[in-house]
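WARN retry 2 of 3 for item q-0093 after timeout on previous attempt; input resubmitted unchanged.
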Amino acid sequence: MKKMEYEKMCDEILDCDKKIRYVGVYDYGELYDKMRSGLKNYLSREETEMSLSQAVYRWSSRKKTSEKLGKPIFALAKYEKVYRITIPTEGAGLILISTELDADVNQIVDKILKIKNKYS
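OK item q-0093 returned
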């Protein structure tokens, strides 16, 4: 996918629900991201990239059990300040989304999967 497509995907995901704070697409060591205007980012760009590189490793571990459990679709973590959702891309990358705690994360994931499939 090209840089313009990643940026467009980030815009579409951010626009799909007002409870989404941040979206990033991490692919081959490159991070394309958007933050909802007016909100404070809790992590620096470097911290986000480090977190994403660790998440890529965790996804590779999840894939090892896919023959028995099925293909992993998304992962969800709840923190004191946000939910963080990771969704694998078709390649070796990830989409990272953070939302407000009062977000309907299942509904948001459904919307994001539809957007992701448009770019696959």
